[in-house]
Design goal:
About 25% of the residues lie in helices and about 30% in strands. The protein is α+β, with helices and mostly antiparallel strands and about 550 residues long. The strands form 8 sheets. Strands 3, 7, 8, 9, 10, 11, 12, 22 and 25 form a 9-stranded mixed sheet that branches. Strand 23 and strand 24 form a beta hairpin. The two termini are about 20 Å apart. It binds adenosine-5'-triphosphate (ATP) and magnesium ion (3 copies). One magnesium ion binds next to loops.
């Protein structure tokens, strides 16, 4: 392709709001442009790299046995009402009305749509397991869109879903996806770790996140210095993954260590935890269990309060909210009246099946039919207060270290949550009706792209791994006004294309300095410069990453770059 005819415009200065490398470089190099907060267009260079990442994802999904499809981004509210998430997903879900005042959402994720499709077409165990995926723009009205492609409000995701007849079968699908994810991120050249994760909005059970190690990551990972143990700090102390299931629910009373605490002590505990980033506590008031989970975010401290019997859930945005809540008692918890003291049952990590977050202004929202034991499992008592670097790893091997990570992928065992709510059943080999078991698996394709730039850059620009780069060769003709330069460059352009090499040809009438600077910014792995020695048929070949360069003869070029 000829650069003179490409929609691209490089910038000398970093955009004012771009705090991190990937955001700065992708904008400066003309790969992306912001259209609104958290909303980006991919210009031709950006689209090419996005397609490279997509293609890797696609190949690995196909290899895992998943079939590609494309679901509508526009989703009727009815489907989300069936699953229950119309009311629980909160402000992140972009909602709109059509001309007949019917409500819709722009797909933040597609569990509802795929479950409705599968329930209408799969009736027998003979058709299971089933794995499908799509690569599509997702919409989430993030509270704080930032860091360019890392946290957008419209972004490209690969989402996959498995439908299984049993938990054993789900485990097999999950393993396949887990392997596919490891392959994808390895092929993207990323330094990553798979970590035990929280289940977020998805109502997940067993779940892992794939984290790219990076200082700019918003998550904190606790990992063992000598073993494979790694967990999102939200879940760090959890040792045993409780098996996903309809099995014997954990008995709360069994793990409980009842302990009277004054409200002041509870408030202190939580206030303290905010400083450290994580805490959960469960107590009993008026025969109702209340679970409080604090989450650390380096900017926001979210607190979730759950009255598990009535499942009132409040998500408070700030530390002040916490204190005012603690100060004024539990008025916003609905049925629970402000007590002087509470019976603390335990502070531990739990694995919520139904994990609901609402904005503070939606406090008091009711989520019905949630029961402890059935809807969440106590994993293991662990004191989250004092986890710190150097502590013994929960798996008994080595010691805890912390690192920051960017969540690029997430695999979940969903269990029967959606299938039950949406009535996705099949007949088993005995002719009995059973509820399907599901898994869901997401990769942030555009986020992965930005994560690659975070790990591949230098002071002059991006340094793409060859398989991700938009082109393999950047061909520069330094002074196209000189006939012999233009001629040689034109010839090389033809030869490279004929050899099947992706080449971007800078045929612009610009100063050499401008061309070199743009080329470094773009990060194409090999630069071929046609300059002064064109009359001898000699050009300069330079590797972007290592800086190695050599003068080569025209007839050596193809062999050299292939
Ligand atoms: P996060 O914790 O960063 O908000 P998430 O847990 O909400 O992400 P999932 O629901 O697990 O995200 O979605 C699957 C994948 O989609 C994530 O692992 C991530 O790579 C990507 N993703 C999620 N939100 C965004 C976003 N706002 N911008 C870009 N990619 C995103
Ligand atoms: Mg999110
Ligand atoms: Mg997450
Ligand atoms: Mg996630």
């Amino acid at each position: 392709m000829k650069q003179s005819q490409m929609l691209v415009h490089t910038l000398k200065e970093n955009p004012a709001d771009a705090e991190i490398k990937s955001h700065q470089l992708l904008v400066r190099a003309g790969y992306i442009r912001q259209i609104a907060s958290g909303v980006y267009s991919f210009l031709p260079l950006g689209k090419r790299v996005l397609r490279k990442v997509e293609e890797i994802v696609r190949e690995e999904m196909d290899k895992a046995g998943a079939h590609e499809m494309l679901m509508s981004a526009l989703q009727p509210a009815e489907l989300w009402q069936e699953s229950g998430r119309w009311n629980t997903y909160g402000a992140e879900l972009m909602r709109l009305r059509d001309r007949h005042e019917r409500e819709f959402a722009l797909g933040a994720t597609h569990e509802e749509v795929i479950t409705s499709l599968v329930r209408d077409s799969i009736k027998s165990y003979k058709r299971l397991p089933l794995m499908v995926y799509q690569i599509q723009n997702k919409f989430r009205d993030e509270k704080r869109p930032r860091f360019g492609l890392l946290r957008g409000r419209e972004f490209l995701m690969k989402d996959a879903y498995s439908f299984n007849e049993s938990f054993e079968s789900l485990n097999e699908s999950y393993e396949k996806m887990f392997t596919a994810y490891s392959n994808v991120f390895t092929r993207c050249g990323l330094d990553f770790r798979a970590v035990i994760a929280d289940s977020g909005q998805m109502g997940g059970k067993d779940t892992h996140e794939f984290m790219v190690l990076s200082e700019v990551g918003e998550d904190v990972i606790a990992y063992s210095d000598t073993s494979d143990y790694a967990a999102n700090v939200e879940m760090a102390p959890v040792i045993n993954q409780s098996s996903p299931s309809d099995q014997e629910p954990a008995n709360l009373e069994k793990v409980a260590t009842p302990d009277q605490k004054t409200m002041q002590e509870v408030a202190d505990f939580l206030g303290h935890s905010l400083a450290e980033g994580l805490k959960s506590i469960m107590f009993k008031v008026d025969d109702q269990f209340v679970l409080v989970v604090t989450r650390g975010d380096h900017e926001v401290n979210d607190i979730k309060l759950k009255n598990l019997y009535d499942a009132d859930i409040v998500d408070l945005a700030t530390e002040e909210d916490t204190h005012s809540l603690m100060g004024t008692g539990f008025g916003s918890l609905g049925p629970v009246n402000a007590p002087d003291s509470v019976d603390v049952i335990a502070d531990f990590a739990v694995e919520p099946l139904v994990n609901v977050t609402c904005g503070a202004n939606e406090a008091g929202f009711h989520y019905t039919n949630v029961n402890p034991g059935r809807d969440f499992h106590v994993k293991e008592y662990a004191d989250l207060r004092f986890i710190k670097e150097g502590d013994p790893s929960p798996d008994g091997n080595g010691h805890i270290k912390f690192a920051r990570g960017i969540e690029v992928g997430h695999v979940f065992k969903l269990g029967r949550f959606y299938a039950e709510n949406m009535n996705a059943t099949f007949l088993d080999d005995q002719g009995k009706s059973q509820t399907m078991v599901m898994g869901s698996y997401g990769i942030g394709v555009s986020r992965t792209l930005a994560a690659i730039v975070e790990q591949y850059n230098d002071e002059r620009g991006i340094t793409w791994p060859a398989n991700i780069a938009p082109y393999q060769v950047h061909l520069l003709s330094l002074n196209p006004k000189k006939e012999e330069q233009k001629e040689l460059a034109d010839q090389l352009y033809e030869q490279l294309q004929a050899a099947g090499i992706e080449v971007l040809y800078d045929d612009r009438k610009e100063r050499a300095g401008v061309k070199f600077a743009d080329s470094d910014l773009f990060g194409i792995p090999i630069r071929i410069t046609v300059g002064k020695r064109a009359s001898e048929g000699v050009v300069e070949v330079k590797e972007r990453t290592s800086g190695e360069q050599a003068d080569l003869n025209q007839n050596e070029i193809i062999h050299h770059v292939q």
